[in-house]
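Weekly structure sync, notes
Attendees: PL (lead), two postdocs, one rotation student
Agenda item 3: pending single-chain targets
PL asked that the sequence for the first pending target be pasted directly into the notes so everyone works from the same version. It is reproduced below exactly as submitted, 196 residues in total.
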Amino acid sequence: WEELWWGRGSRTRLAAALLTAALVLGSVALVYFTGGTRYVFAHSAYLPIVFAGVIFGPLAGAATALAVGIGLGPWMPLETGTQLAQPLSNWLIRCAFFVTTGVLTGLLALRLRESSEQQARLHSLDQATGLPNRTVLEQRVEALQAGTGGAEGWCLLMLRLNTLGRVIETLGAAQAQLLWEQVVQRVRESHPGRIE
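Predicted structure, written out during the meeting:
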């Protein structure tokens, strides 16, 4: 789901933009044909605002909110049956609420996205060495077995420090951690650009 909407595919983003526009037009039409801004259907405007904020971020949420706010603006009657105009303050305040909702939704979606990406990184790296962990190894081996892993130039290097237990007993866990970090650094330096 995350890749479908948050990915960079131009077709998906175009479809989401078209859906946002359709939701804006639909909510404005719904408000008009159900009697005007006096009635509850004015709240349908939050659907495209929240959708745009989640999919495209806070700026798009604010822009969609402005579009809906203008659509429900001064030419939208308070009540369509009598063509009673709404006061200027009504639609300005409504528009301010719409923009606030769009921006906050977009910011929350960005934060959620960043947190999700950070969790994925933490899940795939060994905390002691910063190298890919067993989960990544299993995924890559499965990809190689399925023929989608791009096996060209790929090899597996496994390191084991036989005396690590003695280092921990003698010097403590912090020094053992430092030893691992130095080993990883030296391996990376000996093969620059080739060790993930």
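Discussion points:
- The CA atoms of residues 54 and 112 lie 10 Å apart.
- The chain is about 65% helix and 0% strand.
Action: rotation student to compare against the earlier draft before next sync.
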